[in-house]
Specification:
four-stranded mixed β-sheet, 505 residues, 17 helices, seven-stranded mixed β-sheet, alpha+beta
Amino acid sequence: MKKFFFAIAFCFSSLFSFAQSGYEITINLKNCPDSLAYLTYYQFDKTLIKDTCTSIKDGKIVFKGKTKLDKGIYSLVSQKKAIYFDFFIDDNTQKLELKSEASANIGKDLVALNSPLENEFFKYIQFINQKNTDFQSYKSSTELKTKKDSLSFYDKQKDVEKSINDFEEKFVETHKGTFIGDVMNLKVEKILKEIPKASNGRPDSIQSFNYYKKHYWDNVNFKDDGTMRNPFFHNKVKKYFESVVVKHPDSVSVEIDKFLEKTNRTSLLYKYLLAHFTYTYETTKLMGFDKVFVHISDNYFKTGKADGIYDDPDIVKKIIKRADKLKPLLVGVVTQDLYMIKAEDFEKMKAMGFEDAKNSEEMTKVYYKNEPQVSKMYVKLSEVKADYTILIFWDVDCGHCQKEIPVLLQQYNDLLKEKKDVKVYSVYMQHEGEKYLKYIAEHQLPWINVYDGAHYNNAIEKYDVYSTPVIYILDKNKVIKAKRIDANQVKNIINLFEKENKKGK
């Protein structure tokens, strides 16, 4: 009898454990046109599918699983992949019953049958939607004919923004300590309410900004992966690094380190953030910000702090290899030297056999056979004497180069007229010497026109020339001042450096 009792007790315990650990989301959606629906959730910059209901009957949609759902903002998504509405899941809403109607008023009719806090969240969404609807109605019915009309419209807009902000702040304060309170805290902007006056009598914008930056991440829990499972966190991170952090690669690198230090290294949040920063600064178009990517590679990927970020270990190797290639090409670094041959010496190099070598072995033999003579023919980049050296890699047959070279020539001539000490070290990336010499003559390029006649430099790898043209600007010490710029930017950039130099003196 005891054995039987214990068996019942064990079964009951197992069922109770399942009930506690699983989830069941029941949605009664009147007039639902779908035969299937999706349960999706936000995760940093992505929306992922968690579950699918394939048997909707009379509008009843059930998502059920054996393990708890992660905390986050979830969505009911239609068969046509349109979002019906959002709701939140935390430890207290794993068994959730929702009710609404598939109509234009789906948000207004939405109600949770067993979660008062979920209903508070729905009321917030309904409030925001109503405010936006009212304002759009006002906007469409308002004609801005006079300055008074514009001021009135602006005041109305500010009133709407203030009422929304006040509502959100009250929501966060009322629900502090709850998951949905933490989510809404991400959305609320931390703005200095009473801005003091500066010495000029105007609002002190510097103090206002400093307050904003200091409190930007107030009460955000970086130890909880749930922090990124909503539509606000990714945009907040993006805005912080694009608009709040000082736009300098060193400042960005420091902020990234501080940011990641707040998280648990084994957490999903840490992995997503590190992957985000890596991709952002590897692909950035902002000149000089590839330095951030190199910093990430050196301090995270090379040290093992990026272990587990990618399933494929080859990706880590590629990231490190890419960063190592960029390191000697960073703005502010003394550039790598080049040993090039003058264009007019093409026939001499051809006579030595450089153009006839069929493989690297033959090329090596030709090189060492003629090394004493070739070494005297080199035109070294490091030996170019000028306040500014414009280094360009290009190809005669490159369509974009054919547009950029005349522009660069004009920029160069303009700089000379302005008495700027500038030279162009022009590197042809192919070995069709006759074609190169013809182009130089026809376009009268008065530059240091060179090519890799001895096949010695491997400029493609050394200078990351994966497409042409590529333009660098070097100072008199051959420090990289600018790179990968368009030809029409050259004059303005050099003039900007000139102004900065004069200020420094």
